[in-house]
Specification:
By secondary structure, the chain is an all-alpha fold. 67% of the residues lie in helices and 0% in strands.
Length: 432
């Protein structure tokens, strides 16, 4: 058992250990603060009034957080300060934040002077460490997703590729209080639950064959909860429901042709359980929107940035200014890999490909499509499981004599990403 664990997880565990010195626990950027104040205000103030949180950060660093003056100067139609950040990261950080608060209370009981204000270093460490842990769990789930269809060798290299040769590594270690590590975990969890329940055919590595008995009600509820969680973390994750929809439509059509309407009716209770669970989990976000802005949708500040057409779609992919494929070329290889996966699992490949394409179109409709002062195309970090599956298909297609070459290409992509990170950190690449 130890030898098997070492073979499957040893390399990934070693890389995780070696990467720990990159971990940088701090709250700095605008989005980080917006995610954080949801948790701090709920735990300490029991409200959705962020005035005191915004004032704290503004006073702590007037130059870096001068943008908060705008939020403090105006109120929403409901009389509250605006906050366009969803609440999902606060939900995932809550256990770590609670543990930090208990630790602070204990330390103070023994004479420590650490402030129990929700802002002091233990609380910042808690949310940053929470993101890192959820992100690492996302990597583990992604490895399991790849192993459903591919060998350990191909899966390991696919995970290393999406981990170290894309923007994920930056938002996992350097800027963990952003929502991207949490979003990655939530999407990986949903994708794993979706694919794992499709069953095993027992023929070679073709492990994603549809199980005719389908999911039980409990599995549908769990899948709905995971879907709700990923939507709570980032609204863009609604698009990650597309693969499941494609899967259900395709197999529903096949069953209808083979067995008639009765086959569809048998699946309705599970699908209804999924939808009901999804609504229950997402409902707090809509209620939060209503309390903050007076509407059940995102803030007008977000909505007004969208165009009816994806006018920036090509720039999203190929621009030298944070373009997905130009910044992280390994994602282009991963996209090609979905075509290879199509030969073995067409429904899965089409579903994942449509989710990726839909995200390109949506981001291409956004006036700030480049993602602000971001490291690469950060808005595609939620697509990491898709890229990993595509990369695993590429590595699987390599004949044994070419495996060493594949590893060298992977290393080149990692070096490319490290070079960009150094240039970004030193200002050689403009942040905006």
């Amino acid at each position: 058992m130890i030898a098997r664990w070492r073979r499957e997880w040893g390399v990934l565990a070693l890389v995780a250990l070696l990467a720990l010195p990159l971990f940088t626990p701090r709250l700095y950027a605008a989005d980080e603060i917006k995610y954080f104040v949801h948790l701090r205000s709920a735990w300490f103030d029991h409200d959705l009034d962020f005035s005191n949180e915004y004032e704290h950060f503004l006073q702590a660093d007037p130059k870096a957080h001068g943008w908060l003056e705008g939020l403090l100067a105006e109120r929403s139609p409901t009389g509250r300060r605006l906050n366009d950040a969803p609440i999902g990261s606060a939900v995932l950080w809550a256990p770590f934040y609670l543990a930090a608060d208990i630790a602070v209370l204990t330390a103070r009981a023994f004479g420590s002077s650490v402030a129990r204000d929700g802002f002091s270093p233990p609380y910042v460490w808690a949310v940053c460490l929470g993101s890192l842990i959820w992100g690492m769990l996302g990597l583990a789930l992604t490895a399991r997703i790849c192993r459903l269809e591919h060998s350990t060798w191909a899966s390991q290299r696919a995970v290393l590729g999406v981990w170290l040769a894309t923007s994920l590594v930056f938002y996992l270690y350097i800027t963990p209080p952003m929502a991207h590590a949490n979003s990655f975990f939530a999407v990986a969890l949903f994708t794993w639950l979706w694919l794992a329940a499709r069953g095993r055919s027992g023929v070679g590595h073709e492990l994603l064959a549809r199980r005719e008995t389908g999911r039980g009600i409990g599995q549908w509820v769990l899948l709905g909860a995971a879907a709700g969680l990923m939507v709570l973390v980032r609204e863009l994750n609604w698009l990650m429901l597309i693969p499941l929809a494609v899967d259900e439509l395709w197999h529903g059509w096949r069953r209808w042709r083979a067995e008639g309407v009765g086959a569809l009716a048998r699946r309705l209770p599970g699908q209804a359980a999924f939808a009901a669970t999804l609504v229950v989990v997402v409902l707090p976000q809509f209620l939060t929107y209503r309390a903050l802005h007076g509407t059940y949708g995102p803030t007008p500040f977000v909505v007004e940035k969208f165009s009816p057409y994806p006018v920036h779609a090509l720039e999203v992919l190929f621009s030298g200014f944070h373009g997905l494929y130009s910044w992280a070329p390994i994602t282009l290889l991963a996209t090609i890999g979905l075509a290879l996966l199509f030969r073995r699992q067409p429904v899965v490949a089409v579903g994942l490909g449509l989710a990726l394409a839909a995200q390109v179109l949506v981001i291409g409709s956004y006036s700030t499509w480049w993602g602000g002062a971001s490291f690469g195309a950060r808005r595609f970090i939620n697509c990491t499981p898709i890229f990993a599956v595509g990369l695993a298909a590429v590595f699987t297609a390599l004949p044994s004599p070419r495996r060493r070459l594949g590893t060298l290409v992977l290393a080149a992509f990692v070096v490319w990403n490290i070079g960009l990170a150094i240039q970004y950190a030193t200002g050689m690449i403009p942040r905006q």
